[in-house]
Amino acid sequence: MALIGGIIFSVVFALHYSFIDSNLYQARDDGVITMSVGRHLVDFGFIGVSPSGPIVEASSSPLQTFVYAVSYYLTEVDYKNYSVFQTAVSTFLIGAIFISFFKDRPNLAPAITFTAATALSFQYSFSLWHASGMENALTHVLFLVSVFLLFDMVSKHRINYFWALPIFLASIARIDSVVHVAPLLVFFSVYWLVCEKRAGGFYLSVLVGLLWLAFQSGRLVYFGDLLPNTAYAQNISVSGRMGRILNGDIALAISSFTIASNIFVLQGWWISLLGFPFLIIAKLNRAEKFVLLAIATLFISACLTPVLFGPARIDPTRITTHVTLLLILWLAIVLTSNSLTRSPAHIFRVLLLIGSFGVAAIARPPYYLGWSTQGFDETRLRFAKLAEAHNIDRPLVSNPDLGAMTWHKQFNVFDLGALGSPVVAKLSETKLISNYLLEFARPDFIESHGYWTKRYCADLFLDKRFSQLYTPANAEIAILQMCQSQNPETVIWVRKGIERDSDSLERQLLDDLQNNLDTTRIRTELEICALNNGDCRYVVRTIYRFIPELRKSQRLVEVIAFLDSDLAQAYLLGWQDTLNHLMILREFE
After folding, report:
1. Are residues 67 and 163 in the same domain?
2. How far apart are CA 277 and CA 263, in angstroms?
3. How far apart are CA 437 and CA 433, in angstroms?
């Protein structure tokens, strides 16, 4: 039965995807960020995006990070092929799980599954994000399997504590997934206590909670913070939002309600209302009633998501697409209950379900999800050509788009978008970020465009230090005119002191170390710089480029011992201890 369901979903979705331009949805850059972090763990032994560090939790999906890390370790699969593979496997699993809810109706189950697959394939916020390469495919599978496992235990009147593991995995599919899993387990615990007169549901929930707490404790030890860097980068504060609402911030409450309402409409959740008239006359067993209430619990938690976290990046529907799948299940259970399937109106109800989703599809046809890797990869290739032209083996590049830029591990990255740089995320203000960039980090190449150029114009591009340090890569640019443009074009800047023909001390040191990574040369440079009372930060920047090689040859400790600056040591050891970035923060706040 499960095999049949998997095949049905796989065929229906594959057929539908064949009629949609894959550039609209495949391999979104935010998903590639997660895969970049996973590859980084394999290639460099720490969680981050830049080969030289620092440690940074640049992804909101811990589970996908580790799933991709294992996949990459075993097969070296790239992000495009992994995206396709993840979609195919998860689609099959959804079908296998979905049909299992109707295993007591073997004659009807394939038709129900086909109807549901067809409906979901036309719900483009679901089907496109499902195939985007982001964590949506995992959340779809794990939330559905969590509901099924609870349903199975209710049906058998027996707790299986091994099922705590997949439910725990659902809670880390995204950092915020526990907001949905916790209420579901509370409901299950209460249900089991009331209906089974036992505390087994509570014990299962406690076991899941202990696994989750152990995982979060590990995050706290490793990252030094329970908030991911993505929360700092996007200014997400659950406590801050709740405090504002409790203090009477009506505007925020209305804004949150508006977002939730838009999600309700855009994802076609309103179609589930069609099931309510039939719910009154439906004959449901206790396990089916449990599933309906469990789905209602997850629906409520999803509606509260905008209240807790605000609007989602890229697309407001992105982080709640699992509810669309569950509401289809809700509708399928109601419309195919034992009492109703004997009715002559059954065929009408099935057609109504498909037709309603057809209307929804017409209302919102396939759409561009945003942030394709294609344009970002073009920037990466331009950076690579510049690096070759200026003979820089591992340049430090700065731009606001992280995924495709970092997956290939060609560059260290100063992320203007903040997701990949804990210092940038926590400095937050563009004035402080710009000062850190111009005074200390000084990327070799900087790319900016559109919104990001406008954001950084006043404090970075119009700062006189910027013109002293950087020159356009291709042609002269009037910076003031660029900043005044409504939609600034893409511009790449090169740091003058690192150009191939530069006679700067930094360029000379870089050339020498690229030819022969000799620690004596580093020590001598530091000694001469100190004797001349010079600014020795250029030596630190140069050492930073070679951290992977120094680590591999076990000479990094020797080099660190040459430095008497706590700031320099913190910068160079960010790959080892995430708390080192706090010292940099104190310096530039």
Report:
1. yes
2. 23
3. 6
Cα separation, 221 vs 300, whole angstroms: 33
Give residue-wise pLDDT tens across range 88-131: 999 999 999 999 999 988 888 998 899 899 989 989 999 999 99
Instruction: With residue 396 as reference, give the H or E element that holds it.
Output: strand 396-399
Say if residues 309 and 236 touch (Cβ distance below 8 Å).
yes
Pair 191, 276 in one domain: yes
Q: In the 3-class helix/strand/coil scheme, how is 433-463 assigned residue by residue? A: HHHHHHHHHCCCEEEECHHHHHHHHHHHHCC
Q: Which of 498, 517, 537 is the last residue of a domain?
A: 498
> Position 519: which residue type?
T
Task: Read off the DSSP letter of residue 488.
Answer: P
Alpha-carbon distance of 111 to 104, in angstroms, equals 14
The radius of gyration of the chain's CA atoms, rounded to the nearest angstrom, is 27
Residues 113 and 189 in one domain: yes
pLDDT value of residue 238: 83
- Reading the block at residue 59, the tokens are 């992804």
Domain boundary among 471, 498, 525: 498
Number of separate domains in the chain: 3
Amino acid letter, 546: F
Domain that holds residue 545: 505-588
The mean pLDDT of the chain is: 92
For the chain, how far is it from start to end, CA to CA, in angstroms?
60
pLDDT in tens, 323-340: 999 999 998 898 887 655
Closest CA to 273 of 256, 296, 291: 296
Output the DSSP codes for 519-555: HHHHHHHHHHHHHTT--THHHHHHHHHTHHHHHHTT-
State the DSSP code for 372.
B
Which pLDDT tens digit goes with each residue over 414-439? 999 999 999 999 998 999 999 999 99
Rounded CA-CA distance 33/24 in Å is 18
